[in-house]
Amino acid sequence: MFLEPQETMPQTSVVFSSILRPSCSAEVQPGMGERGVGADGSGDLIFQDGRLISGSLEALMEHLVPTVDYYPDRTYIFTFLLSSRVFVPPHDLLARVGHICLEQRQQLEAGSEKAKLKSFSAKIVQLLKEWTEAFPYDFQDEKAMAELKAITHRVTQCDEESGTVKKAIGQMMQGLLLSLAARGQLQELREKFRTPAVDKGPILKAKPPATQKDILGICCDPLVLAQQLTHIELERLSSIHPEDLMQIISHMDSRDKHRVVKKKHRTRMLEFFIDVARECFNIGNFNSMMAIISGMNLSPVARLKKTWSKVKTAKFDVLEHHMDPSSNFCNYRTALQGATQRSQTANSSREKIVIPVFNLFIKDIYFLHKIHTNHLPNGHVNFKKFWEISRQIHEFMTWTQVECPFEKDKKIQSYLLTAPIYSEEALFIASFESEGPENHMEKDSWKNLRTTVLNRA
After folding, report:
1. Same domain, 207 and 326
2. What does the UniProt keyword field contain (predicted)?
3. Does residue 143 sit within a domain?
4. How many domains, the chain?
């Protein structure tokens, strides 16, 4: 059963303050009202117990646009702007909003009611402000930016005396440009730290250079490494925006386990990462924890029987239990629920940290999107479905805004962000170099790998 938005929409963070609370500016603060609709007909909205559950796309668009006596609920603004891109591109929606605004403006101009016209213009600016704050990257598109400028130009024509609306538009545009610039800088930074996968590993027992360090040479404290991983996770999460979550597919790679030549050191490395994963779990960083466990379960690592025989696996067994995929990751979801409840009542930033397994979160949203139809038999948009998708994404966005309380270690951060990421082929080569093949199948695989790499060289 879907949860209703009024009862379940979590308190938003600073980024979404304009969506869920009124503006502090008295001059442009829109009044609240209720837009009347019928209970049937293709153009109407359908309410159940006072809550919107469906409507035609056209009616939902009209419900987004303010009037002199009405301003949409902020949870509706967020939910509709998020879900509308399933049906129409943002620039097309903005064009339609602009058209509806123009029609209403012309009606007010015909009545020569300047006060109402100015009030209506202020509400339109407020709606656009909330749109640009919650979904700024809709306006990277030139068409959307052109539509935005066209709408704001029209609404400023009634503001020649006091300039209040013009001032609000100026502040909105400044904030939007700053958001777009920040995203551009973030993309440049990502490219700077992007590490290409290593296509082939060391061959025939080749030793790494003396200057090449593994993670234990940089950090030997599992808690500190878990904290630095949490830093990276939170920084990456903070760059994710609601619209991104409709499309993102995440992949995790493995590194470090095969860079160690001696069995004793490999054993220490595995035990170290087990402790790191446990500390990640305690912090609430489930994504890094899952990445570590998944890396250890990769075939090139799992086949190192001699190494694993020396590892104390009791801690690892507990971690695997938490991430047991049976019953749709029931154990993980229980732990996530506990971390979420802790976050909601937390007094410190450390207790607020919740970093879910990103792949599972995306799959949950995708599954929710797929099993429930976008349209009902009467042709209406199934808005009840989008309330729930919006609720889950909104909760995720509150987690992304938590400030990491741990001190950043630049040396460890640099290592984690720039260490090479090995391809599957390179991992298998390193694995066979660490522990030779034990059966005919492994011997054939090792022979084929060596032949492939030597021929490539």
Report:
1. yes
2. Guanine-nucleotide releasing factor
3. yes
4. 2
